[in-house]
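input
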Amino acid sequence: MVELLWALTHGHRIVLRGEPPLPSAAAAAESAEVAEARSRDIDFSLLYFGSDSEASSEDRYRLLLEGAKFADRNGFTAVWTPERHFHRFGGLYPNPSVMAAAVAAITERVQVRAGSVVLPLHDPLRVAEEWSVVDNLSAGRAGISLASGWHANDFALAPDRFEKRKQLMMDGLAQVRQLWSGEKVTRLNGVGAEVEVGVFPRPVQPELPVWLTSAKHPETFRMAGEAGTGVLTHLLGHNLEELAEKIALYRKSWREAGHGPGDGHVAVMVHTFVGQDLDEVRELVREPMSRYLETSFDLIASLGATTGSAADFKALSTEELRELVDRAFDRFFATASLLGTPQVCADMVDRMKAAGVDEVACLIDFGVDENAALDALTHLTTVREISDERRDAALAKAEEPIADQLREHAVTHLQCTPSLARALLADQDARAELPRLSRLLVGGEALPADLARDLADAVGGTVHNMYGPTEAAVWATTSQIPADAGPVSIGRPLANVRAYVVDRDTRLCPTGVPGELLLGGDGVVRGYLDRTEVTAERFQPDPFDGGPGARVYRTGDLARWRPDGGLEFLGRIDDQVKLHGHRIELGEIETALADHAGVRSAVAVIRGTGAEQRIIGYYVPAAGRPTNTVELRAFLATRLPGYMVPSAFHAIDTVPLTPNKKVDRRALPDLSDVRPEATTEYAPPTNETERLVTDVWRDVLGVDRVGVDDSFFELGGNSLLVVVARARLLEHRDNELSLVDMFRYPSARALAEAIDRKPSDGPDEAVGAGAARGSARRAAGQAARRRTGKAGV
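output
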C-alpha cells in the first residue's frame, strides 16, 4: 500500500473497499473462465448468406430488408451482406455494395457492412468509390470485410488473379485505405498515359472500418492483426477452442504491430433461430438447415472439381450424403449455432465470449420460412438481454456497494482499476456520485479509449491514467485525460522518475518506435529479497544519464514515445512461456493441478518445438488417493482455459529440486516418447491394414503413437481431417471406403476391418455401398489422383 503513504502522512482519511463475501457453493462451482467472460461486452448483428433456391420468387429481398429494419430499431450493431458468384449458395448477393446501398437507405443507426468483398475480383479504386457512396448514403455507417476468394469459378471475372489472390487482397487493402484517406493512385488511361485518380464522392468517415474474412486459417488471423483490421470468421471448420487459439494469435499480432487503442475486433458468423421450445426449434430448423448444408457441400464438391482435388462429396450416394448432413446438423445444433431457446443460446454466447469473440453475426436466412425467421428476431433480442444481464451481474458479483461508500464518506479522490471504473459507470447509483469527485485515478490495467471518454464526461473533476509497477514504487508515469477525450497515453514520468524506451540491444528508440520500457530514478527499489538471479536480470545499471550507482528496472512492457512527449503502452514483451500464441503461466497450471485431492505436488513444463510444442503435467500422487489422466483433465477443464490444460500427465515419485530448494524442471524425466495414460490401453496393429490406418492417423493428427482401439476423434480428429485421412488411405488402398465410413468406424481396428471387407466380400449391409457405386467412387478418386499426383483437400 505504498501509494497510500503520501495521503496518510498529509492528514487525509482513506476509505478502503472491504473484502468481497465468500461465494456460494453454486458460484464456486461455476467455471472461472465463463464467469470472467460473462463480464465482457459483446455485439449482436445480422448476417445474410442464404441460398437463392430458398428465397421467395415474389419478394426475394423481404427477409433482408425487414430484418435490417428490425436490427435498426432494436439496437443491433450491424447488418452484413456477402459477395457470391455463379452458384445458388449465397446467390441472392452477387454484389454487397448494391445490397448495402439498399440497407443504408432504409435504416438510420445500424452499421452497414460487407461480409465480404472479394477484393482480387475488383479494382481497389472501384471498391473505395462504391463504398464511399454507401458511406454517404448511410451518413458514415459503412464497413467492409475483405476476402481473398476461395472458389475458382468466382474468378471467371479475373482468371489471372486466382493464384495471387492473397497478395492481391493485401495490396488492394493498402490502396483502398489510401484512396479513402483522400490520396490518389496512378492508373493508365485509354491512350496508355499515366493519370492520378481519386475517389468521388468523398467518404464521410475519415477511416473505413475493415475486417479480413477467414474461414479458419491461422495465417489470415495473423495477417489481420499485423494489418490492424478486424476478423470476420465462422464456426464451420473449427470449434470454439481452436478459434480461441487463433483469436489469441490475432491479438498477439495486433499488439506486436503497435495498433491501438484496444486489441482489435473479432466477429463470428453463427446460424441463428431462437424459439421458446428447444425440441420445436430443432424440428423446425432441421430440414432447412440440412438443405443449406447440402447446398454448401455441393459447392465444396464443385470446388474439388475446379482445383483438381478428390470429389469426395460428389462420390457419395444420396443416402450417404444425407447421413453426413444429419451428422453435420447435429454438430451445428449442439456446438456451433444459436439454435434453441434464449437460455440455451445465451449459454453459447457466454462460450463465445470466453473464446474472445467481440461480435455475434447472426445468420438468419438459411431456409426457415421468412415469417418465422422474422418472428424469431424478437427472441434473439431476449438472448442479448440475458447476455447483458449476466454481464452486469458478473461485474456486480461479490462487490461491496461502492456507491454507499462514496456517499457515506463524501469521497473526493478515488483510485481504482479501469474494470471497476467501467462497472461504476454501469451502476446508476455509483455513476450519480462521480460528478462529486475532484480526482479519479485509474491504473493497474490498460485504459481503453471509450472508457476514458466516458469517465471524462462523468467525473466532475479530473481523470488521470496511472502507470507503474510495484518495483518502481507503484506509479511511475501519469496522464490527465483531456476534456475532449483525445488519444489515451500513460503520459510523462513523475518527478524523480526516468523512463527509457529501448530496443533489444538497449539502444534508445526514436519517437514512434516500439521498445521495452525501462524505469529509473529514486523510486526504483533495490531488488527482490533473497532472489539474486532475478534481481540481476530485472535491475541493471542505468546505461544512460542516471549518475553513479543509478539503476533501471526492466518492466517487460512494450511502449513507444509519442510526438507530444507522452508514452503509449502497447502490451507485454514475450518474457513468459508462449504456446501457439497464448501466454502461459506455468505456475497457474501447477497450482490448479495441485488442488486435486489425488495430487500432492505438481510441475508443468513445455515440451517439443514449433507446432509440436505441448504442455506436460508431472505430479506426485497423494497417498491412498489414486487418480488418472481422464480425471485430472476433467478437473482442470473447470479451472483453466482449454489451451492451458496439459496434453499429457505423468506420475513421478518426487519433484526434483535445485540446491536452493527450487523446482529443477530440467531434471524432470523426459517422457516424450512414453504413451500417456488414456481412455484405452495401447494396442499395436496386428496386420497390414491396421498398420496402414494407424500410420495415416498418426501423420494426419500429429500424434506420437496410435493404437488400434484409439478413436480418431478422441485423438483430435474433426470432420475436415476425416476428409484428409480418407484421401490418404485411398492413395494406398483403392476401394469403396466412403466418407461416412470414417464416421461409422471411429476406431482404427473397426476401420481396418471395414477396409478389408470392401470390395472383395461384396456389399456390406453395415456400410450399404453397392459395387456399382463403389466403382464410380474409385473411378472419381483415380481420376483426381491422376490430375494432382496426390490425394487431399
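quick obs: Residues 429 and 783 are 72 Å apart (CA to CA).
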